């Protein structure tokens, strides 16, 4: 064990951290928006699209994320060529972001859908009878009740996403793991233990920080509805 | 570059050949992780002072680090750990002779034991405390109570989660190709490189995974329904 070496490479690893963080933020935000769309289609049972979304969810849930990365990386240019758009190569970072968006769109929709369905039918009816518009009903009644139920699941999804970003090096993105390979080869294959231990600690820290943020959000969200609208409505 | 159906079918059969060994590996990891998870849950429940807090730090570490990182860490450290342990007994062991399959099994068993311990703890909570007291009053020992009263009831509660983690393990094994252990995904990569037809190979692998997981999910649902009826 060489602690000084670990301290030496830590800043180098932190310098590639923005790529990982960018992938996490972009794919979680767009994935979340996609998941709302998917959940809405499944809740409203839109014809044709509903079974399609069911297949999409079952596919993304039953194949490893690594396989999905490779499928998108190699497959997307071919699919695009069939549609008449010719690109020779797809950027590895773009491919990994697309993959993670697709994966999270399915994963998060399975969190949101049950959370939405957990809100009692009576709440919808009460809002309707009080003359709420459908937008107002959603923002004032439904979302405040859905959020606390969905938040732990969404938090888990973010933690899994952080873990899954560690796989994007497999298609050639130079993130923390990709950088590790570069350092190892420039070190003639020495000090692997220290390098991977450093990476493990970095990921541990990221996970712990995000867990704390999620916990904080959960506490805030829990304060809101039950002392406010819901109690009064009940 | 066109998509060739005959190559896809050929790859499909090539991949099906490694399905049994992937499943076997997953079963081994599942059983080992359940065993270790059970031990962890028991220790946490007994609240043994120093060991308990050590375990919670370890749990946080294992939960916070991705499986790839753990796999690489295990790949580089495990041979030396084994060498050290074996040398205590006085046997000379070359660290480079440790088969990567062992590494895969050890690393994933440890990393999943954390999740299993949570499942087991939750399911043990679901067993009414009165049952344990009743067993004690009938003169059952600790292990008898565990075996005859707690485990049969907790198992029904934990089964869906355990089966779910089985599916997760099957998927996580796709990482094993990084340290040259061939599973479904690894086979797809090999076949893709061999025929120079990556897309067909990956589509075939995806189909195999999809079919496997759908089949297992169906099986679990049937089995769970039957178990619940029993009570």
Features:
heterodimer, A: 234 residues, mainly alpha, MetI-like fold, 9 helices, flat, B: 231 residues
Question: What are the SSEs and their pairings?
Answer:
The complex is a heterodimer of chains A (234) and B (231).
Chain A: H1 3-44, H2 49-62, H3 65-82, H4 92-118, H5 121-129, H6 134-164, H7 176-186, H8 192-227, H9 229-233
Chain B: H1 5-16, H2 19-46, H3 49-64, H4 67-89, H5 100-126, H6 129-137, H7 142-172, H8 184-195, H9 198-229
Helix pairs in contact in B: 1-8, 1-9, 2-5, 2-7, 4-5, 5-7, 6-7, 7-9, 8-9
Explain this structure.
The complex is a heterodimer of chains A (234) and B (231). Chain A has 234 residues and is mostly helical. In chain A, 82% of the residues lie in helices and 0% in strands. Chain A contains nine helices and no strands. Chain A has helices at residues 3-44, 49-62, 65-82, 92-118, 121-129, 134-164, 176-186, 192-227, 229-233. In chain A, α3 crosses α4 (92-118) and α6 (134-164) packs antiparallel against α8 (192-227). Chain B has 231 residues and is mostly helical. Chain B has a domain at 36-155: MetI-like fold (Orthogonal Bundle). Chain B is built from nine helices and no strands. The longest helix of chain B has 32 residues, at 198-229. Chain B is flat and about 70 Å long. The mean pLDDT of chain B is 86. Classes of the chains: A mainly alpha (234), B mainly alpha (231).
**Secondary-structure element order of chain A, N to C:** HHHHHHHHH
Largest sheet of chain B: none
End-to-end separation of chain A in angstroms reads 61 Å
How many helices of chain A in DSSP terms?
Answer: 9
Overall mean pLDDT of chain A stands at 85
Q: Rg of chain B from C-alpha positions? A: 21 Å
The termini of chain B sit apart by: 58 Å
Q: Low-confidence stretches of chain B at least 5 residues in length (pLDDT < 50)?
A: none
Examine the secondary-structure arrangement and name the CATH architecture of chain A: Orthogonal Bundle
Named at the architecture level, the CATH assignment of the domain at 36-155 in chain B is Orthogonal Bundle
The most extensive interface, with participating residues per chain, is: A-B, 37 and 37 residues
Number of strands of chain B: 0
Q: Identify the overall geometry of chain B.
A: flat
Tell me the major beta sheet of chain A: none
């Amino acid at each position: 064990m060489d602690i000084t070496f670990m301290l030496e490479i830590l800043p180098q690893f932190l310098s590639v951290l923005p790529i990982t963080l960018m992938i996490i933020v972009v794919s979680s935000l767009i994935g979340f928006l996609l998941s709302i769309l998917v959940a809405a289609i499944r809740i409203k049972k839109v014809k044709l699209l509903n079974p399609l979304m069911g297949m999409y969810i079952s596919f993304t849930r039953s194949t490893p994320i690594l396989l999905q990365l490779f499928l998108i990386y190699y497959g997307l240019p071919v699919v695009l060529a069939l549609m008449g758009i010719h690109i020779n190569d797809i950027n590895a970072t773009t491919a990994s972001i697309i993959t993670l968006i697709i994966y999270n769109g399915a994963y998060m929709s399975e969190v949101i859908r049950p959370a939405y369905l957990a809100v009692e039918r009576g709440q919808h009816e009460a809002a309707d009878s009080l003359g709420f518009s459908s937008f107002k009903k959603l923002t004032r009644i439904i979302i405040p009740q859905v959020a606390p139920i969905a938040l732990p699941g969404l938090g888990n999804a973010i933690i899994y996403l952080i873990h899954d970003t560690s796989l994007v090096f497999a298609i050639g993105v130079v993130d923390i793991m990709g950088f590790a390979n570069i350092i190892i080869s420039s070190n003639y294959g020495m000090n692997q233990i220290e390098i991977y231990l450093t990476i493990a600690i970095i990921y541990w820290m990221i996970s712990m920080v995000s867990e704390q943020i999620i916990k904080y959000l959960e506490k805030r969200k829990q304060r809101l509805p039950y002392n406010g609208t819901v109690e009064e409505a009940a | 570059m066109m998509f060739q159906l005959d190559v896809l079918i050929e790859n499909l059969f090539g991949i099906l050949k490694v399905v049994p060994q992937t499943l076997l590996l997953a079963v081994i990891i599942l059983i080992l992780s359940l065993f270790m998870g059970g031990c962890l849950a028991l220790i946490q429940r007994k609240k043994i002072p120093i060991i308990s807090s050590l375990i919670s730090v370890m749990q946080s570490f294992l939960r916070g680090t991705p499986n790839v990182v753990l796999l690489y860490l295990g790949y580089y450290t495990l041979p030396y750990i084994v060498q050290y342990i074996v040398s205590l007994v006085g046997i000379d062991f070359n660290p480079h002779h440790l088969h990567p399959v062992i590494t895969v099994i050890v690393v994933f068993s440890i990393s999943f034991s954390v999740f299993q311990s949570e499942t087991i703890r939750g399911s043990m909570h679901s067993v009414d405390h009165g049952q344990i007291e009743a067993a004690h009053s009938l003169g059952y020992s600790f292990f008898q109570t565990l075996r005859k009263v707690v485990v049969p009831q907790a198992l029904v509660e934990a089964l869906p989660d355990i089966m779910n983690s089985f599916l997760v393990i099957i998927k996580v094994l796709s990482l094993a190709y990084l340290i040259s252990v061939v599973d479904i995904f690894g086979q797809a990569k090999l076949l893709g490189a061999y025929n120079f037809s990556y897309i067909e190979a990956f589509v075939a692998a995806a189909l195999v995974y999809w079919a496997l997981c759908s089949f297992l999910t169906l099986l679990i649902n049937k089995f769970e329904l039957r178990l619940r009826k029993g009570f």
